[in-house]
Every structure is written in C-alpha cells, then in structure tokens.
Design goal:
The complex is a heterotrimer of chains A (596), B (226) and C (267). Chain A is mainly α and 596 residues long. Chain A has a two-stranded antiparallel ribbon. Chain A starts with 5 loop residues before the first helix and ends in a 15-residue tail after the last strand. In chain B, helix 2 runs antiparallel to helix 5 and helix 3 packs antiparallel against helix 4. The chains are: A mainly alpha (596), B mainly alpha (226), C alpha+beta (267). The interface between A and C is large, with 111 and 105 residues. The complex binds protoporphyrin IX containing FE and copper (II) ion (CU) (2 copies).
C-alpha cells in the first residue's frame, strides 16, 4: 500500500545495491556518519601534522626540516620555514581543526550515526539533504586544502580572518589574494553543508521519535546534538553571508570591510568607507556559538558514556539539559568578549562582560552534576570512561581561565597572548577531542561490530592526558608573561627568556602527537581484526544497543521500530534481573528517578 | 528513496496503523509505556516536511538579518554613502510576486480537492501551478531588468556601498526564489506522477509565501536605507 | 588504574599551580598610574579561579578513587542533597563570585576608559603600518599637520604623508621611530592605522589597544618609572607581525626635552 506518511516514505526506501550508492553517494545516515568520521580523521591528522611543523619552528626557528621544500618551495627554501609560511600553516591548522574536526567529528559524525538510532527512527527525514551535507562539507575541505597549491599559498590571516588584512588582496601579503578567496569559499560551503545537516537533526529529533520516546526520554547525547543543531542553524546562517561579502570585496571590488585611504606599499588602496569592525561583529556572532557547537556534543557524549560506566543515571537529567540550553542561549549574548580591546565602544565591553561571566554558572552546574553523580557510583574504568573523566578534568582547567578573559580590565593584559591560546585549546580543543575519543571507544563496537583494543586504548589515554597538560598548561604561563600569540619567532627582548618553555612544549607536542598514531593503529587494526563485539558490550540501555546487529542493518531496527517504555538511563534498578533495563524493554519496573 | 508505487494520492491521514510507520511518539498500537509517563507521550508528530520548512525559513531569516545588520553598520557613519532611487520596475515585480502567491493558494485548494478524491470536479489541478511558476519566472526576469536599469545608470556592484547592498540583497533573494521555482517544478512533477504528498505541497507553498514576505521586507528596507 | 588516575590528576593540579603561586612567569611590574586596579583584579581572580580549579580537580580525583572500588552487589547511593544543592550552590557561590568580579572589574575598566585625558596631557601620535610604528610630536607650534595618504613614501622617508612645503603645521612636526615620554606626565596617544589592523601593547604600562583602520582612536596614560620598555604589535598584521616592535623610553623631563631637540635636529 502506498503510505502517505513522510516517515513511511523514509522507511520504505530499499537498501541500495550498487557500490556507489552504498558507500559513496549513500543516503543512509550511518554511512554518512562514517564518512564524516573519516573526513574528521583525515583532517585531524593533517591539522596535527601542521602543528608539528609549527611547534618545531617555534622551538628552533632556523631548524632545517628535511623535505619541507617539497611541501612548498617558496614557503621553505632550503628546508627552513619562512615567517609567512609559518602563519599560513597556522591559519590552515586552526581552520581545519575548528571547522573540519571539532565540528564534524562530535556533531556531524556521531550525530548522524546515532541520533536517528537513539530516537528510534529508521533514517533522517531528508536523506538527500543529508548526503549533500556531507559532500558539500567535503568539497569545502578540498577547496581549503587546494589553497596550498594555488598562487602564493594559503592565507596567513588566522582563522578569524580580520579585515582589512583579509579583504585588501595580495598586496597585504602572501596568500591574502587567492588564499583568502579559497578560504572564504571553503567556509561558505562548510556553512551550507552544516545548515543542511542541522535541518535534518532538528526535524529528526522533533518528528521521527518512535512510539513512547518523549522528549525527556531522549538520551543526553541526542539532546546535545539537538541543541547544537539549533545553534548551528543560527550561527552558520550568519557566517555564510559574511564570507560572501568578503569574497565580493576581493573579486568585485566592493568595500564592505575595507575603509578609505589605506596605504600599502606606498599605494593608496582603491576602496572607500568600509567597516573593519563589521567583519569582527559578524565573525564573532558566529564565532562564539561555534565554540559551543564544538563542545556541547562532547558534553552530551561524555555524559552518555559516563552514565553507562557509573551504572547510575546523572543526578539530574533535566538540569543537564537545561544547562546545555542555557549555554546555547547565552552563547549569543557574549560574543563581544573577543573585542574588548578592538576599539569597540568601552561601554559595550562591560555589557558583554556580564553575560560572559554568567555563562560560568551553567558551566559550573554541569561540572558539579558530573562530580555529584560520581558520588556513590559503581565506576567502571575502561578507555571510554577514562576519556570521559579526562574531559571533565580538561573542561575544569580550561573553564577557569574564562574567569580572567571575561573581564575587560584583565583582558588588557591577556588578550592576544598565549593565555587565550591555552584557554581555548584546553576547553575547546582538548576537551572536545576527549569527547570524540570517549565516543569512539564507546561506540566503535556498534559501528563496526568489533571491539577496540583496550590495552592500546589505555596507553593512548595516558600519553594523551599527561601530554596535553604538558602542552597547554604552560601556554597560560607564557600568556601571563606577555607572550603574544601568532608570532613565528620570539625576537622581542622580553620574550626571549621564554623560548625554553616553548621548547618544552614542542617536545611534549611531538610525543603527544605520536601517541595519536597508536589510536590510528588501534582504529584500523580493530576495524579488521578486532575481537567480535558482543551485542551490548557495556550493558547500556539506550536504543543504539537494541538494534538487531552491529553494525545495525540498513533500516536500523530490522523492519520493526522499537517501542520505548522507559527513561533513557535505567541503571541500578531495584528488583530487576540485571542492574539495568533497556529503554525498549517492556519489563515493568520501579523507574529510577533522579533527584532533579 | 521512496519506492514509487503508482496509486492515486489520498488525503494524508493523521494516524496510520502500520507498525513500521509508528514514528512520532505513540501513534500505532496503543501500548502503555511502563514508566507511567503517559502525559509526556505525544500522540501525533507533524510530518517532517512541515517542521523542516520552518527550520529552513528560520535559517534564511537569520542570513537576511545578518545582511541587514551589515547594511545598518556599514551605512552608519560612512561618508561615502550615495543615495539612489530604486528602479521603478521593482514595484511591478512586487505585484507579480504577490499575484503568484494568490495563484499558488488557488492551486493548493484545487490540488487538495483533487487529492480528496473529487477528481472529476477538478479538470487540471496543475494548471494554476503552471501560472504560479510563470509568474515566478516573470519576477526573476523583472529583477534582472532592474539590474539592467541600474547598470544603465552607471551603478554597478562596486560603484557605491548602496548599490553593492542593492545587488547583494536582490541577488540573494532571487536565488532563493529560483530555489522555490525548483520546488514548484518538483511539486508539478510529483502531481503528474500521482505521488505528491500533501506535506510537500504545503511546505513548498509556505516557502513561496515566505519569499513574498521577505521581498516586501527587503523592498521597504531598501527604500528606507538606500 | 583508577587510583593511579586519581593521583595523576592531583599531581597535575598541584604542579600546575606551583608556577602561579611562585610567580615564576608573571606580568611585568606595573609602571602606570592606572594599572593598580588591573593587578588587583588579576590577583583576586587568580585566587578565586585557583581555588575553584584545585577544589574541583581534587574532588574529581577523590570520587574516582573512592567510587571505582565498589564491590559487586553494593547499592548505588546518591549524593546527599541531590542535584538541587548543586544548582543552588552554583548560583550562590559562582553567581556571587562572578558578580563581584564583574562589578569590580567594570570599575577598574571604567577608571581607565571612561575618563577623559587631562587638558594639559601631552599629545603624541602613533601610526602603525606593516611592520613598524612611527611616532609624531607636534613640535613647538603644538599642532599636527594634516595627513596626505597619497604622499606617503618609504623611499623619501615620508612615512606619514606630510606636506612640509605647503602645510605650515606640518613643518615642525617631529617624526620618530621610537617613542619617548617624560615620566609622570599624562600622555594622550592618538592612534592611526596606515594599512591593516595592528595593536599597541606595552605590558609594563598595562596598555593594549587595537589600531582600527578607518577609525582613529585615542588612549591616555601616565608612565611613572624611568626606563626602557618594549612596544609590540599584538594584532596579526602580516608576515612581519612577530617583528613589529619598538621601544618606549620613559625619561626625566630634562632628558626628554634633550631627546626631543635631538630628534628635531635630525628631521
Ligand atoms: C567557562 C566559560 C568561558 C568563558 C568565561 C570564556 C571566555 C572567553 C573570552 C573572554 C575569550 C576572549 C579572549 C580574548 O580574545 O582576549 C575567549 C576566547 C576563546 N574561547 Fe572561551 N570562554 C569560556 C568557555 C569556552 C568554551 C566552552 C570554549 C570552547 C568550546 C571556548 C573557546 C574559546 C576560543 C576558541 C577562544 C579564542 C578565540 C580567538 O581566536 O581569539 N571558551 N573565551
Ligand atoms: Cu567567545
Ligand atoms: Cu602589526
């Protein structure tokens, strides 16, 4: 019978048979999720490789790096990196990491794979958009990387691309012509890809939940992806037009961001009246929510992972969800804290300072609930839970530096120093990476039907945990001592004594980076030769563990959607056969209530 | 995607007993969830297309809001801002676009009747959709004529910030209208193949009406600011 | 494993705190009249953030230590007080903390940014361009000559685009590559960007302010201690960003006048 319902429409699509339809232009959210994961994996190793080169250069500025001229003969004549090439690598590192790793892996990859399963759906409602979402994002990545090989290389303007440096063209420096245009095209594509993804995430959560799956019964990870997609919808919709205006300033000679009477190389630039602060406002209106887009999925993932390993629900499910929501709302009211010393009206600085300080309240609530939930738990230590706990530690360490940066008066001393770099690497970079790792070790058995190697996993964890502290804690000290960021060498008198600290960081970064190869090996080895995974290796309750097989069949639940009877985290259940009850088990139990 | 089964469309039902289609919270078999949480279990979830279109419109609104604030900031305190009179054809275009919404509404009603099984009474339900499509095309052509008028006056994209914003706004809007035209064409195709779903038609027309509203907003904005 | 992890967390937390407590790396000593509230705010925040940091890390470690050892069959217990305590605690503790920090911080900020320069403050102009700062003193007439961007020329050393032949005000302007100021005299610094965005950062002076192309801003400050300090650019401005720096000499009134005369003579 032809069913008129939209869900049935999705439900009825038959599994594809051709290789291309199955693995490349697939409409299956699980394949798209894996594609996103693969993209993030490729991107993170490119980004990390670039950071190695940068760190080596910062420790030993005139170091010859054998073979570097193969990457760029202009950028590294005689295998020694030029100052502009350092900045170009830095910009690419940041852009790749923020957009193509921290947004794609925890949000787009895991979200695509698990959100539909966790709500009990067979797929997203708009699979074609979903496929386009990935391929447009991928095209964005290709465009970005292509700038290494076009003209005078990638842009050197930093991931924030402040105008007018980014808008006047190649007179301003290498990569500021075609490099910036490619950067802006790449980011605009990325925005389109993520808008399509967010559209699917939101409609899936609202409309595709299975019978019995009320909003409050959604797992925390689903809530996090849902809230993130709402943020993404708003933030990327602002960055995209901003990128288009930037491109127009380059290719059409408009003056959105370039003011009059700029003199570069003794030439008055043919622009008039543009506003440089306009770019900063548009960028940070996107930029601050973006850092929460990177971290909130991680918060959801580690909560989900921790609960299964604590064998108890969080102290309060709803408080966590409200806190995610509060972060999302507040993240739009604080963006001006990036502009305290930018020449913005000083009254606005105070106006932006208070919401920024207030955002520490939901952050603290999150940490306290995580800590409080550990109390009295039956904590299982495995690689996934170690990374989840490591996330909390990192989030605390990165979060407290927010107290400083939120105050314009202190920001006078810390703005644009390594203190900021330490802050956002810990809270956004490392914490989000820990979320990705926790999710990977936890969900790998479901995604590939095999277990990851625990011993290698623990080695990976230890090296990463200690290593990242060794790298990013000293950044704060450097910042306090006035070490300015985005410098390719420290020739300033008062920064020269800080070079040994930079060398220490470089060594730590090389070791920690090498540890990630263990992860890569574990991933590949386990994918093919890992131990076959049991049905529910972590004895977890949510719907992804109710699918008939690992990986789940094409339509997730084998032709029959689950019916949900319970709250998502029924662990430590009294009078039940095990200590947990699956969400779709019809068993009658006394619901484990949280004290919310 | 959907295995297309050629069967005449019917009015969409709110609930459907097939176990597979039991998504959207609690439709179907009427089992009582054990948690006793019945209150929070919704009975009916809207089809994704209708939620989806609101979500998409929200994103589009955000983008145009961003451009609007860019216009306000860029104009504020800029000594180089030159005013110009909007090409008069824009007003004719506005009427065309508004008319297209009316014809779309007519066709929506007709298609509904048609889908309701009263096929004999509606000879050709797609006819008004074709009219809407043509009006939409006429609008885009009219916008193109407006650009020609401006460039004939020597006002190009980079001439002045005011003309820059004019081109950016009208081009961004025209692109979205072209997207809507694609949607209409898809509706017509599906209607002819008897696979049109009511939610698709509704979503497409909501989008189309939104393009109207957006255009009127832009026209007022440009009138006031340029 | 859990115990090692707990110990590691505590060790890392304490090791991280030591350089802070010992001020191994710290802000350079303040030489400004407006910097005291900033420093105070910094120590205040450091104390509160430091306590939050240590307390939460140690609590995390203790809980990991204790609650990974439970025997099988042991019942799950809940934190006494539940989530509500957490929420109220967060609001009370962190809420008052951040409001206090915000209020005092705002006061410190206001004392710097909401005050006008004294009428007798000494005007100095600074122009930032790819990759150098140039300073301009108005000379005996006390007036700056107008700028002509089209006349800027590195070759003829006319970095500001002054028209000495036609503008009488520009004739006696003194342009220098380093900055000197008399101690204990308020300076009114007029900031102008020649090309892209730059920033003016002197850690000892507790001053950091961006140059905004197309928008001339000004700041004012008083240096109190004679000495030689570095001015660095903190806004990414291109390939020479790392080397965009110069010196600020804080001189006695007499030394300053001598210096200015010498500069005038070499124009
Ligand atoms: C605990 C609450 C937080 C506060 C109070 C806070 C505050 C700030 C402030 C004021 C700045 C600007 C510093 C400056 O430019 O001088 C900043 C920078 C930054 N923050 Fe946060 N933040 C918090 C949490 C987060 C989180 C959760 C993330 C990421 C997920 C994050 C990522 C970043 C990034 C990436 C930057 C650097 C931007 C740049 O390139 O300049 N922050 N933070
Ligand atoms: Cu921010
Ligand atoms: Cu500079």
């Amino acid at each position: 019978m032809h069913d008129m319902s939209a869900h049935a429409h999705v439900a009825h699509h038959a599994p594809p048979t051709s290789f291309i339809r199955k693995h490349i232009f697939s409409l299956d959210h699980k394949v798209i999720g894996k594609q996103y994961y693969g993209l993030a994996l490729l991107a993170v190793f490119v980004g990390m490789f670039l950071s190695w080169l940068m760190r080596l250069h910062l420790g030993w500025t005139n170091l010859t790096i054998p073979g570097l001229h193969l990457l760029s003969s202009n950028g590294a004549p005689g295998n020694v990196m030029t100052p502009e090439y350092y900045l170009q690598l830095m910009t690419m590192h940041a852009t790749i990491m923020v957009f193509f790793v921290l947004t794609t892996a925890p949000f787009a990859a895991f979200g695509n794979y698990f959100l539909p399963i966790q709500v009990g759906a067979e797929d997203m409602p708009f699979p074609r958009f979903n496929m386009m979402s990935f391929w447009i994002t991928f095209a964005g990545f290709v465009v970005l990387v292509s700038s290494f090989f076009v003209g005078d290389g990638p842009t050197l303007g930093g991931w924030t691309q402040y105008a007018p440096l980014s808008a006047v063209g190649s007179v301003a420096g290498p990569g500021e012509g075609s490099g910036v245009v490619l950067w802006a095209i790449s980011i605009a594509l990325f925005c389109v890809g993520q808008l399509l993804g967010s559209l699917n995430f939101i409609t899936t959560t609202l409309d595709m939940r299975t019978k019995g799956m009320s909003l409050w019964r959604l797992p925390l990870s689903t809530w996090a992806w849902f809230i993130t997609s709402v943020m993404g919808l708003t933030a990327f919709a602002v960055l995209m037009p901003a990128c288009i205006l930037l491109i127009l300033d380059h290719v059409a000679g408009t003056s959105f961001f370039v003011p009059s009477n700029l003199v570069i190389s003794d030439q008055v630039q043919p622009h008039s009246g543009g506003s440089t602060l306009l770019w900063q406002h548009l960028f940070w209106f996107f930029g601050h929510p973006e850092v929460y887009i990177a971290i909130v999925p991680g918060m959801g993932i580690i909560s989900h992972v921790l609960i299964a390993n604590m064998r108890r629900p969080m102290l309060s499910h709803r408080t966590l969800i409200y806190s995610f929501g509060a972060l999302a709302v507040l993240s739009y009211m604080v963006y001006g804290h990036h502009m305290f010393v930018s020449g913005m009206n000083p009254v606005s600085s105070i106006a932006f300072s208070f919401p920024t300080l207030i955002i520490t309240i939901p952050s603290t609530i999150l940490v306290l609930i995580w800590l409080g939930s550990l109390y009295g738990a039956r904590l299982r230590i495995n690689t996934a839970s170690l990374f989840a706990l490591g996330f909390i530690s990192m989030f605390i360490s990165g979060g407290v530096s927010g107290f400083f940066l939120a105050q314009p008066s202190i920001d006078i001393m810390l703005h644009a120093t390594y203190f900021v770099v330490g802050h956002f690497h810990m809270v956004m970079g490392v914490a989000a990476m820990f979320g990705i790792f926790a999710g990977t070790y936890f969900w790998f058995p479901k995604m590939f039907g095999r277990m990851m190697n625990e011993t290698l996993g623990k080695v990976h964890f230890w090296l990463t945990f200690v290593g990242t502290y060794c790298i990013f804690m000293p950044f704060h000290y450097l910042g306090l001592a006035g070490n300015v960021r985005r410098y390719q060498a420290f020739v300033v008198d008062y920064m020269q004594p800080l070079v040994p600290v930079h060398r220490f960081i470089t060594v730590a970064a090389l070791i920690t980076g090498a540890a990630q190869l263990i992860f890569l090996y574990n991933l590949i080895h386990s994918r093919f030769w890992g131990e076959p995974a049991p049905e529910n290796p972590w004895q977890a309750t949510s719907l992804e563990w109710s699918t008939p097989s690992s990986p789940p069949p094409f339509d997730n639940f084998g032709g029959k959607l689950p019916v949900v009877y319970h709250d998502p985290y029924q662990y430590g259940v009294e009078g039940s056969t095990g200590d947990y009850v699956m969400q779709d088990s019809p068993e009658q139990i006394e619901t484990v209530r949280d004290e919310g | 995607m959907a295995t297309t089964i050629h069967e005449p469309p019917r009015i969409e039902e709110r609930r459907h007993p097939s176990p597979i289609s039991g998504s959207g919270n609690g439709s179907g078999r009427g089992l009582v969830p054990a948690g006793g949480n019945l209150r929070s279990v919704q009975e009916y979830a809207p089809p994704p297309a209708s939620t989806g279109i609101w979500v998409a419109l929200a994103a589009i609104t955000m983008s145009f809001a961003a451009l609007t604030s860019a216009l306000v900031v860029r104009k504020g305190g800029a000594p180089d801002w030159r005013h110009f009179t909007l090409p008069s054809i824009l007003y004719a275009n506005t009427l065309v676009l508004l008319a297209s919404s009316v014809t779309l509404e007519i066709s929506r009603r007709r298609v509904a009747t048609f889908m309701g099984g009263l096929r004999s009474r509606v000879a050709n339900p797609a006819r008004w959709l074709y009219v809407t499509l043509s009006l939409g095309l006429l609008f885009v052509a009219g916008q193109y004529a407006a650009w020609r008028q401006l460039s004939a006056q020597g006002l190009y994209l980079a001439t002045n910030p005011s003309s820059s914003f004019f081109y950016v706004f009208t081009a961004a809007h025209a692109l979205h209208v072209l997207g809507g035209l694609g949607g209409l064409a898809r509706v017509i195709r599906k209607l002819n193949q008897f696979v049109l779903r009511r939610s698709t038609l509704d979503a497409t027309s909501r989008y189309w009406h939104f393009m109207d509203v957006l255009w009127v907003y832009l026209l007022v904005l440009l009138l006031m600011k340029l | 494993m859990a115990k090692i992890f707990a110990v590691t967390i505590i060790v890392i937390a304490i090791l991280s705190a030591i350089p802070i407590l010992r001020h191994t790396w710290w802000m350079a000593p303040d030489i400004s009249t407006h910097g005291a509230p900033i420093d105070e705010q910094m120590s205040e925040t450091m104390a509160e953030a430091g306590i939050s940091f240590l307390a939460s890390q140690i609590l995390l470690a203790i809980f990991i230590w204790k609650f990974s050892q439970s025997k099988p069959g042991e019942k799950i217990r809940s934190f006494p007080g539940g989530a509500m305590t957490m929420v109220i605690g967060a609001f009370l503790l962190v809420g008052t903390e951040v409001l206090a920090l915000g209020a005092f911080g705002a006061k410190a900020w206001a004392s710097i940014y909401f005050t006008a320069p004294a009428p007798n403050a000494m005007p100095i102009q600074v122009q930032a361009g790819q990759f150098a700062f140039y300073f301009r003193y108005p000379g005996p007439d006390g007036k700056f000559g107008p700028l002509h961007p089209d006349m800027i020329s590195e070759a003829s050393q006319n970095v500001y685009g002054l028209d000495i032949d036609h503008d009488p005000d520009a004739k006696d302007d003194i342009v220098t590559a380093e900055m000197a100021v008399p101690a204990n005299r308020e300076i009114h610094l007029l900031m102008h960007a020649k090309d892209v965005g730059h920033s003016f950062f002197v850690p000892e002076l507790r001053v950091q302010q961006d140059f905004v192309p197309g928008l001339d801003l000004s700041i004012h400050f008083t240096a109190t201690k004679v000495g030689r300090y570095e001015i660095v650019c903190t806004q990414l401005c291109g390939l020479g960003h790392y080397n965009m720096r110069t010196y600020l000499s804080v001189l006695s009134q007499q030394d300053f006048e001598d210096w200015l005369k010498k500069q005038a003579a070499s124009q």
